[in-house]
């Protein structure tokens, strides 16, 4: 019943009319056709997807771990705390709960048409160091079975599944967390055996899925970042000019795939986290797509010029294989930019212990103690508490136990194409009705709300900006924090002069109302104005000094005449420097 209610609410929030590109439902195998990705009918297909980061491969930051965040190190430290058997129980439950059919069903309902699966090779084959017979491959059923299940759920929803080798044997870069790389062992680039295992794995996958039309493509090496020519000064390959070993390995992988599969797209990524294609092109296969990755840069046309120029020069499609980890404003801007240039995308990630994604996995007190200890900020927790905290975390990874961030979904699916605002929650105004400040309308910055610091553009500016300083409850530019005292209560803080919030309300009866504003301030500079449907109803109301920024008091604005029906109430900070908890309407 709970799952049905979730899906019903999702459909009520998301505009279903933008689920697909103009081509309608995709048909048959995808293929490259000049600069476009098309289906078997030759119709343009714009991929709108999400990556399942954190499922097969945990990166430390997704679990709030920032001290040695490779998965193998996280697992080693968990084993030190509660033993190998209980650690295996946690990982089994995590893999079972993180991604299920309900997740895929929901992604389809929200408006996505594809999924990118970040694969860890160790679910499909043994590391070279553990092979019982040197230079032979032991195949593990676990990874293939998980992929088969995911493919079945995608097929049922008519969604494309893109296989992404996120952690290659040995690890493909010096950004260690991405590929779960152990620097004490030979990397992918230092070991012929690791390269041969990588090639063999792709041949095995291609052989298994050669006739599956809902496999969208093979993303053969995620974010290689390696300095082949100058490792000491360019460890991530940003300035690499030739990229010869990367090109050679990708050609060898492609050849192995084509021995058994001539139908599927082969997706390649440049060095330097997917963006340095020096020496790699021209392409060596007629059914190939370039994947770029984009984070924390401006979303103007010049920011896409390198992708577009490369696409035009080599007459090859481009796909944004990974992007995200920012604010809703950035998401909306980026998707509008990509789609205006006929570039499909896959967001990162679907869920994690954090708020700027469609689903947030809730933490718990025992797990917080584990994180603090691993990060070097706390005492060693008891074994029983470690087990309890981790098993609870794995249980919270199930969709129905996550916090679903509808504002993130709306920013990705509806807002790039619509300037309309929608209520975040239904606000029915009777004789005594309260609206929490954080429940302002869904919509773009400058239309549903206005905030001066909306996103992180540090790649373009060289300066980190918070975007959302609280990074909780919602992912817009509005700064939100959790109340220290009240359970699951939130308020808006860091309000600057000129910022505002809009609330769409349904007023039961025409009448004269008193509007109460619950405010905290450590000064008397703040001023607030109110409008209703664009008409000023209260001008520069003084905000008193309540003692500090966490002591809330109510100010009253009396004799406000409001008509019945829908009203858009705007709360404007003429002068900021106060925090805002709720507004209340009394007739």
UniProtKB/TrEMBL annotation:
<dbReference type="InterPro" id="IPR005084">
    <property type="entry name" value="CBM6"/>
</dbReference>
<dbReference type="GO" id="GO:0008422">
    <property type="term" value="F:beta-glucosidase activity"/>
</dbReference>
<keyword id="KW-0378">Hydrolase</keyword>
<keyword id="KW-0326">Glycosidase</keyword>
<dbReference type="GO" id="GO:0005576">
    <property type="term" value="C:extracellular region"/>
</dbReference>
<dbReference type="GO" id="GO:0009251">
    <property type="term" value="P:glucan catabolic process"/>
</dbReference>
<dbReference type="GO" id="GO:0009986">
    <property type="term" value="C:cell surface"/>
</dbReference>
<dbReference type="InterPro" id="IPR050386">
    <property type="entry name" value="Glycosyl_hydrolase_5"/>
</dbReference>
<dbReference type="InterPro" id="IPR006584">
    <property type="entry name" value="Cellulose-bd_IV"/>
</dbReference>
<dbReference type="InterPro" id="IPR001547">
    <property type="entry name" value="Glyco_hydro_5"/>
</dbReference>
<dbReference type="InterPro" id="IPR008979">
    <property type="entry name" value="Galactose-bd-like_sf"/>
</dbReference>
<dbReference type="Pfam" id="PF00150">
    <property type="entry name" value="Cellulase"/>
</dbReference>
<keyword id="KW-0732">Signal</keyword>
<dbReference type="InterPro" id="IPR017853">
    <property type="entry name" value="GH"/>
</dbReference>
<feature type="domain" description="CBM6">
    <location>
        <begin position="462"/>
        <end position="586"/>
    </location>
</feature>
<protein>
    <submittedName>
        <fullName>Glycosyl hydrolase family 5</fullName>
    </submittedName>
</protein>
<dbReference type="GO" id="GO:0030246">
    <property type="term" value="F:carbohydrate binding"/>
</dbReference>
<comment type="similarity">
    <text>Belongs to the glycosyl hydrolase 5 (cellulase A) family.</text>
</comment>
<dbReference type="Pfam" id="PF03422">
    <property type="entry name" value="CBM_6"/>
</dbReference>
């Amino acid at each position: 019943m709970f799952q049905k209610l979730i899906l019903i609410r999702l459909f009520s929030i998301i505009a279903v009319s933008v689920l697909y590109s103009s081509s309608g439902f995709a048909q048959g195998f995808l293929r490259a056709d000049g600069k476009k990705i098309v289906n078997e009918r030759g119709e343009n297909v714009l991929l709108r997807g999400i990556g399942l980061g954190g499922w097969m491969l945990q990166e430390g930051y997704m679990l709030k771990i920032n001290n040695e965040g490779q998965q193998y190190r996280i697992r080693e430290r968990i084993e030190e705390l509660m033993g190998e058997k209980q650690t295996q129980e946690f990982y089994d439950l995590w893999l079972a709960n993180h991604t299920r059919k309900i997740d895929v069903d929901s992604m389809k309902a929200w408006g996505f048409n594809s999924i990118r699966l970040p694969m860890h090779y160790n679910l499909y084959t043994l590391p070279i160091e553990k092979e019982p017979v040197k230079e032979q491959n032991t195949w593990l059923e676990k990874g293939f079975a998980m992929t088969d299940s995911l493919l079945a759920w995608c097929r049922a929803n008519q969604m494309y599944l893109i296989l992404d080798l996120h952690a290659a044997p040995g690890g493909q870069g010096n950004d260690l967390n991405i590929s779960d790389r152990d620097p004490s062992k030979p990397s992918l680039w230092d070991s012929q055996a690791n390269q041969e295992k990588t090639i063999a794995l792709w041949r095995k996958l291609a052989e298994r899925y050669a006739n599956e039309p809902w496999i969208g493509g093979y993303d053969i090496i995620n974010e290689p970042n390696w300095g082949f020519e100058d490792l000491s000064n360019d460890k991530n390959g940003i300035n690499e000019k030739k990229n010869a070993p990367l090109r050679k390995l990708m050609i060898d992988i492609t050849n192995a795939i084509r021995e058994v599969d001539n139908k599927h797209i082969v997706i390649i990524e440049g060095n330097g986290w997917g963006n340095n294609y020096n020496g790699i092109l021209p392409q060596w296969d007629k059914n190939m797509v370039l994947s770029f990755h984009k984070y924390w840069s401006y979303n103007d046309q010049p920011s896409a010029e390198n992708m577009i120029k490369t696409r035009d020069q080599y007459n090859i499609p481009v796909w944004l294989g990974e992007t995200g980890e920012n604010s809703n404003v950035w998401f909306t801007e980026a998707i509008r930019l990509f789609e205006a240039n006929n570039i499909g995308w896959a967001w990162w990630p679907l869920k994690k212990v954090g708020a700027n994604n469609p689903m947030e996995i809730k933490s718990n007190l025992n797990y917080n103690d584990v994180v603090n200890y691993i990060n070097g900020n706390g005492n060693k927790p008891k074994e029983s508490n470690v087990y309890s905290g981790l098993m609870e975390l794995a249980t919270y990874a199930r969709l129905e136990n996550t916090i679903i961030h509808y504002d993130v979904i709306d920013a990705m699916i509806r807002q790039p194409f619509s300037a309309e605002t929608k209520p975040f929650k239904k606000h029915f105004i009777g004789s005594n009705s309260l609206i929490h400040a954080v429940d302002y309308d869904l919509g773009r910055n400058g239309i549903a709300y206005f905030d001066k610091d909306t996103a992180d553009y540090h790649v373009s500016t060289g300066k980190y900006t918070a975007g959302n300083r609280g990074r909780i409850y919602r992912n817009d530019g509005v700064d939100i924090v959790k109340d220290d005292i009240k359970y699951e209560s939130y308020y808006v803080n860091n309000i600057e002069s000129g910022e505002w919030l809009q609330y769409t309300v349904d007023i039961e009866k025409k009448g004269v109302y008193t509007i109460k504003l619950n405010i905290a301030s450590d000064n008397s500079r703040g001023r607030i104005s109110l409008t209703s449907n664009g008409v000023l109803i209260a001008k520069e109301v003084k905000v008193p000094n309540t003692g500090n920024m966490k002591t809330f008091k109510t100010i009253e604005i009396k004799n406000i005449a409001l008509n019945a029906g829908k009203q858009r109430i705007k709360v404007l900070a003429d002068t900021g420097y106060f925090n805002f908890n709720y507004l209340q309407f009394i007739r």
